[in-house]
Amino acid sequence: MKKKFSALLYLGIFYLTSCISQENPPEIKTPDQSNYSTETIVDGIDVPWGMDFISENELLVTEKKGILYRVLNGKKTEVLGLPEIYKRGQGGLLDVALHPDFKNNTVIYFTASAQLEGDTGGNTALYCAKLNDNQLSEVKLLYKGTPNTKKGQHWGSRIVFDYQGHLFFGIGDRGNRDVNPQDLERDGGKIYRLNLDGSIPEDNPFTNKEGAKQAVYSYGHRNPQGMTVHPKTGEIWENEHGPKGGDEINIILKGKNFGWPVITYGVNYSGTSITDKRAMPGMEQPFYYWVPSIAPSGMAFSSSGVYRKWKGDLFVGSLKFKYLERLVIKREKIVKREKILNDIGRVRNVKEGPDGYLYLGVEGKGILKVVYK
Questions:
Q1: Does some domain include residue 5?
Q2: Interacting residues of 140 by C-beta distance below 8 A, sequence separation 6+
Q3: DSSP string for residues in 10-32
Q4: Catalytic residue among 154, 166, 221, 241
Q5: Which residues contact 131 (CB under 8 A, 6 or more apart)?
Q6: pLDDT over 70 percentage in the chain
Q7: Which of 84, 108, 188, 320 has the greatest CB tally within 10 Å of its CB?
Q8: 247-251, strands of its sheet edge to edge
C-alpha cells in the first residue's frame, strides 16, 4: 500500500512540475539601437488602440476615446456612423479588423465598450458594418457581454480570423475575477469564436452544455490585450495582462481552461497572494509568462523577411516599460528577449503591414513604421 501511495505521489509531483510553464530566459537585452528607427505614418492620435490595413498606404485606426480614422498617405479623416461608445476607465473604442473578403463586401468589425441597457454600466461588444468612403452603414451588433458593470477595467479586446472562416475576439474578466472567468454561464474572462456573420459555429466546445455561453471557445483569461495568428501553424496566439507579475502568452485551444484566477504566476498589486497554485490538473499553462509584468499589448509575428534576422520572431508592445519586445522562439520555447526601440512610448498595438513592415500604435504619437537599416 505504501509503495502504491508513493508511486501516486511521485506521479502527482511529476505532473505538476512537468506542466509548469517555461520560466523567463535571461534578463532582456537592449541591442544596438542604431540598426533600426521609426517613420511616423500618422500623428495626432492619443491612444491608437486598434488598426488594420486596407492597402499598403491606407489603413483604419481606432482612437480609444471613440473616433475611427481612415488614414490615406498619412492624412487622417474621421469615419462617421459609429454607435454610441460607453467611455469608462480602460474602455472605449477598441480593436478594428477588415473582413477577410473586404475588397468585395467592404465589411469591417470593431469592438467597443457599450451600455445599451440604460444607466447600468457596460460591457464589451462586437459590431460589424459596411465602410462606404468615410461613412459606416448597416451597423450590426454581433455580440455583447453580459451582465453590465460600472467597473472600468478589463474590457479586452482584439479581433483575429482563423483560416477556416471564424472570427475570434476576447473579453476581459471585467474586474470580477472570482466569478466571471471560471463560469461558463457568464461572459468575461473568455475568448469567443463566431462565424463571420455573427452566428455560433456548431462545433464550438460548449454548444451542448446547458446554460453555457455558446460563443465561448476558451476561458480562464484575465484581460486579453494582444492576439495574432501564427503564420505557419494557423494557431491563435493571445497575450493578457496578469496582476502584479504573471502576464501571459497563450496558444488558444478549443474548450480549454487557462486557469485565472485559480492558478497564476502573479500576486495582488498590494503584494499579497492570490493563490498558492501555479498549476492544476485540467488547467492550461501559458506558453510564456513575464515576471515582473511588462503590461503586454498588441503583438505580431514578423513573417515577411524584410528585417534581417527577425523573420519568424514574435513582437509584443510594452505599455508599462514603453518599448517593443522581440521574442525569439526555437523548439517551441522562447530563448531570447530583446528590447527594441527602448523608451519609444506606450506601445498599444503591433501589426505587420501588407508591405511586410511592422507598424506600432504608440500612445501620444500615432502610428509608426519600424525601419530596419
A1: no
A2: 127, 128, 129, 198
A3: HHHHHHHHHTSPPPP-SPPB---
A4: 154
A5: 60, 70, 79, 106, 107, 108
A6: 93
A7: 188
A8: 224-229, 236-240, 247-251, 288-290
In-domain check, residue 147: yes
Write down the pLDDT at residue 293: 96
Query: Which 8-state DSSP code applies to residue 33?
Result: G
Q: H or E element: which one contains 217?
A: strand 216-219
pLDDT in tens, 16-54: 434 445 666 778 999 998 889 999 999 999 999 999 999
Domain enclosing residue 148, as ranges: 80-293
In angstroms, the CA 225 to CA 191 distance is 11
- pTM strictly above 0.90: yes
Number of domains in the chain: 1
Computed over every residue of the chain, the mean pLDDT equals 93
Q: Which three cell numbers stand for residue 132?
A: 462606404
Total number of residues shown for the chain: 373
Cell 451542448, residue located:
208
Q: Write the DSSP string, 253-292.
A: -TT-B--TTTS-S-B-TTS--S-S-S--TT-PPPSEEESS
Q: Where does the pLDDT of residue 10 fall: very low under 50, low under 70, confident under 90, or very high at 90 and above?
A: very low
Q: Is 166 a catalytic residue?
A: no
For residue 48, tell me if it sits in a domain. Answer: no
Cell of 235: 494557431
How many whole angstroms separate alpha carbon 332 and alpha carbon 368? 30
* CATH code: domain of residue 213: 2.120.10.30
Note if the bond before 201 is cis, omega within 30 degrees: no
